[in-house]
Amino acid sequence: MSSSGPLAPTSTGQTGSGVAWDSPHFILADDGTPCEADFVLSGDANSTQLESGFTFAIPAGAIVQGIVLEIRRKGSDVAMAGGDIWDSLVKLLKSGAAVGSSKASWSPWPTSFAYATYGSSSDLWGTTWTAAEINGSFGARQIAQNIYTDSNDAQAYVDHHRITVYYSEPSGGGMASMTGVG
């Protein structure tokens, strides 16, 4: 099995309603400068959809075996011992649309920056992938949630997205033609 990555995103943005992320472009590099969603007095609220786009060059005809998304993030620990911020949604984007299964972890984000790993070298996220789709408009989408329902502030911070794609190349050669003499 071959792999490409981990690659950093080449584009970012946000869509939808919810608590807005400031400076989404900060997730382009793992540099300790995160974007932030500040849940000011908004218990049980979601962030907008933070999106990242990637540029891959998987060989044509390759068979995608699995995809790993890693997100370097942390949440505030204002009210709960385990943290206020949790995943609400973690999905991949195909042609700009969210597809397959959400890999939201349903556990609190750490209060210090750490990478969370979603998917595996054999996980296709509940859908199918071609090399052309990975090389096309491919990316990730996440939504953070403030799970504490009181009126305390909470912050979600995301410093970086990165993706690794695992694939196998089709066996070459095919069958040789033979002509018989008869």
Provide a short characterization of the protein structure:
This protein has about 180 residues and is an all-beta fold. It contains one helix and eleven strands. The protein has one domain: Sandwich (Jelly Rolls).
What does this structure look like?
This protein has 182 residues and is mainly β. It has one domain (2-168): Jelly Rolls. 3% of the residues lie in helices and 45% in strands. The chain is built from one helix and eleven strands, in the order E-E-E-E-E-E-E-E-E-H-E-E. The protein has one helix at 131-135; strands at residues 2-7, 11-15, 21-22, 35-39, 49-54, 63-75, 85-94, 97-99, 114-120, 138-146, 154-168. The strands form two sheets. Strands 1, 3, 4, 6, 9 and 11 form a six-stranded antiparallel β-sheet that branches. It has a five-stranded antiparallel β-sheet with strand order 2-5-10-7-8. A hairpin with a 2-residue loop joins strand 7 (85-94) and strand 8 (97-99). The chain is elongated, with a radius of gyration of 20 Å. It starts with a strand and ends in a 14-residue tail after the last strand.
